[in-house]
Amino acid sequence: MTFTLDAVGKETEPFTFSYSWKDTALYALGVGAKADELDYLYEGRGPKVLPSFAVIPAFEPVMRAIERINGPMDKVVHGTQRVTLHKPFAPSATLHTTATVEGLYDMRRMTQTIVRTATRDASTGELVCETFWGIIFLGVSGTNTGDRPTESKPSPPSRAPDFSVEERTLPEQALLYRLSGDVNPLHADPAFPLVARFEGRPILHGLATFGYMTRAAVLRGLNGDSSRVKSIQGRFSKPVWPGETLVTEGWVEGSRIFARTSVKGRVEATAGDAGASGEGGTVVLSHCAVDF
């Protein structure tokens, strides 16, 4: 296929995103928030907003940027995600977000594109957050716009974790998460062609797992104080199917929390498979680092 290279490096128009406590509570539920997390679910307590909510106002601009380079949406999976917070999210606000495709990088059997966004308060122009998206087009190759940026790979220390959180996702978890804006059929429609690559079953959004990890880091590593989060970065290695149980382990090291998420009961199918932890064959789905 042919990408539209003229669109690389060009910023989109600002996209307006207005939200209220209902939107932030819906997002929190989509990433597994429970009844005892009322600070994030009940308007009578603010509510607080999870820092990983930063991906929500950015989603539509990112999709527009991908459309402009003629990226094939029926081949998209998520590889990496980074969020930088310049201030905590207000319980409600109107935001303006722009997106820029920074490059396309041939990875032999796939192509990666890097998209950056900037989100500002519509009333003041103040920068609220920035995001970095590593998007992969499966089965597409042959295009390069330069050297692929070096990506850091969060890795936990070699000691016992400081906390471990086990949570069973709902069979409807992807259907719930997509109500926050990410309506890719890969997460809903068994007949969508790309689903065939994933045992014929829609998978949970990588960003839902990203949200689960962020919640665990905030609740167990920062005593629920999400306002302390400055940045979050993660990489996705394996898919999650709705209904599986996630186990997130966390290590607090100075001003950084390392997190690692795996699926309870799932073991490595092939020795040396990428993404395996090497600990009893458990497959690691995602790695994440939260700076505060």
Describe this entry's structure for a reader.
The chain is α+β, with helices and mostly antiparallel strands and 292 residues long. The chain has a single domain (5-291), classed as Thiol Ester Dehydrase, Chain A, CATH 3.10.129. The chain is 15% helix and 33% strand. It has a 10-stranded antiparallel sheet. The longest helix is centred in the last third of the chain and has 16 residues, at 206-221.
Key terms for this structure?
single chain, 292 residues, alpha+beta, Thiol Ester Dehydrase, Chain A, ten-stranded antiparallel sheet
Mean pLDDT: 90
Task: Count every helix, treating DSSP H or I runs of 4 or more residues as helices.
Answer: 4
How much strand? 25-35%
**How many strand segments?**
10
CATH C-level name: Alpha Beta
**What is the CATH topology descriptor?**
Thiol Ester Dehydrase, Chain A
Pick out the low-confidence regions. Answer: 269-282
Largest sheet: 10 strands, antiparallel
Q: Order of strands in the sheet with the most strands?
A: 1-3-4-5-2-7-10-9-8-6
Distance between the termini: 42 Å
User: Which architecture per CATH?
Assistant: Roll
The radius of gyration over CA amounts to: 18 Å
Structural class: alpha+beta
Supply the number of structural domains.
1
CATH superfamily heading: Hotdog Thioesterase
One letter per element, helices H and strands E, the order comes to EHHEEEEEHHEEEE
**Shape by Cα distribution:** globular
List strands and helices in order, with pairings.
Elements: E1 15-19, H1 21-30, H2 55-68, E2 76-85, E3 93-106, E4 110-121, E5 127-138, E6 163-168, H3 173-177, H4 206-221, E7 231-236, E8 245-253, E9 256-267, E10 282-291
Antiparallel strand pairs: 1-3, 2-5, 2-7, 3-4, 4-5, 6-8, 7-10, 8-9, 9-10
